Predict the structure.
Amino acid sequence: MSKISLELGSGGRLMRDFLAKTIVPAFADPMLGELADAVHLPGGIAFTTDSYVVDPLVFPGGDIGRLAVNGTVNDLVVAGSEPRFLSLALILEEGLETGVLERVIRSIRDAARAANVRVVTGDTKVVRRGQGDKVYINTAGVGRSVAKPRLGRIRRGGKLILTGTLGDHSLAVMLARGDFGLRSNVRSDCAPLLFLLPLWKAGALWMRDVTRGGLATILSELAERLPYPVVIDEDKIPLSRPVRAASELLGIDPLYMACEGKAVIVAPAAKAAEILRRIRRHPLGRRAAVIGEVQDRVGRPGELLLRTGAGGLRLLEPLTSELLPRIC
Amino acid sequence: MCLAVPAKIVELDESGQGTVSYLGSEVRANFTLVPQARPGDWVIIHAGFAISVMDAEEARETLLLFKELAAASRR
Amino acid sequence: MKELRDPAAIRKLLGDIEERAKRLARAPRLMEVCGTHTMALFKHGLTPLLAEAGVEMVSGPGCPVCITPNAIHEAAIAALTGTEGLTLAAFGDMTRVPTRKGSLQTAVPARGSRLKLVYSPEEALDEARRDPARDVVFFGAGFETTIPAIAYTAKRAAGEGLKNFSVIPALWLVPPALKAVLDAGEIAVDGFIYPGHVSAVIGAAPYEFVARDYGIPGAIAGFEPGDILLAVRSVLDQSIAGRPEVALEYTRAISRQGNAVARKLMDEVLEPFDAVWRGLGKIPKSGLTFRPEYAALDAGRRFGAPGNETGLDLAGCRCGDVLRGVIRPEGCKLFGKACLPDSPLGPCMVSYEGSCLIHFKYGPVRRARK
């Protein structure tokens, strides 16, 4: 590939290849080589970074500012750290209305407050009209390490817990872009997942927030690293009514739709029920459910499988391309 | 190519435009292909157009059939 | 309608199917010709379940994205890249098909032009009404399910005197394609699952020639797992009785007569012609084009798509063979190697209803070795 394609940004195979062939060899750093979203540095500090380029800037349930805080906060939480500080880098396009920018800044402030993090440093650049898409934001996050994910401790019988409904953010953004004649009260689920932090002590072994690529992509990547296949149950996956409706009308699969306030947690069988109870006590976790398990009755190591509502079984692959509403 | 869903007509005007409700979401729909449709009817919606009016009696019978199949399976 | 997905009911139907399949001289092979059926079978994990019950499911030319030849896709790209200030409106997965000029998604629009994804042809018409100074070209692709909606939109545009709205048509008819597949004789098919929503428009009569002239049974099916299995069971019953027909197994949604209003509208605006299909070549009276009175709305000609060119597929792509049911996707050397969902070489790997993409995403599940 001699030119960067838009597909690369989808986060699928092309992105993984790019990282493996271009980024990792350039630095030959064992920490970077892990390609973790957040890393634990010596001294008990965790560190992460993420950039936000969502279009449109504002959508039901949030905006790019709120996303920029919660996305980075959540990366720290699921890596086992308590978020403390953020940097905030803004790349602004010439001609952006100051009213819009002020709204975004206020969202950042409000989200940071809600997530108990301080924005302590940053940068602002302005690029010529046409060279940026109104606002691009990068946030780097620093947190206090409280736990480490223990992939190696995941055994047969380990349970997968999903903290809530899939796809709300993705649908909210899709409809904000071009409404397809669909009137829906869907709202982005953009929110901080701080309430998951105590679960590390309660026995959680691994967590990931369900962002770009959706649940199927996140769990495919997990399954690849486990000695046993993972099976999830279609019937157990919580979906909001708007997402269920839109997915059938527009032909998009909720298993691949991004969220911005949901996580999947792997817990040992013995601890799963208690962990689920604790998640459900929180307003953001009311629809949490055990959706699957690590097992060896069907499939092969490395595989992620879905037991369909009709009783069939199928293989789930990571997302490979943009989700487009299909009609035919 | 047949991606279409059953939805209930919420409103319908003389020009053939209106909305259907599907799992609580409302979709704009065009009813000119089914002039016999009335609010409250269920239709098959494809690409924003109703292409067929559903038969409530047949729907009931289909549901019954499947309930029986499920019961037979459990015996 | 969750009863149609009830695992207990599904199990019962599969049991019935297995029992009937055993009574036939050879394991039946059934062909469905609707991308949405292909998708439903895989999405619900039905194909392996049917295989275990002794029935092999094969896909025919049922995906309009796939059977539209590259010449027409390239015409749409030409519209977007070659004309300033134009909106090219299209359905989602039409926009990712790779051609020599890239896809609609990757092509660089001319100055002031843009690509707009739509769910309904009416959204394209609304665009045209919104700004009469701006050209809107709608890439209208589909089978008989979608054609009436496109015909209606064209008729409205003409009726409202909209000078800025036109359509690149890629309109395909199912029954002639069925005949072409049967006449090609490349693959032995023991029964058909007919597309339920196409049938909502055309009814049951257009398929009767299959039973009458070829002696092959078939059933019109809906799209829930239960619907499809009911239709499979019906086809096997017909085989056992030696009485092929066109059974209707989607009675809640459609009638044997179909939708006469929709057909009349199609007939008013469009007329059949001998269209060229990817993979199947030219099939008599298998496509629809605008009648002379509506020629002003036909953007196909304007951008170089007489619809009669063939070839232009990217080298090595065997989408045509897949569409005829002659090979499975796995039979193509490029499948899963050079041709992947994020680097597709042909539309069968692009479209959500393309066999290759479906086979890639929803591969077979193997039991764990014990």
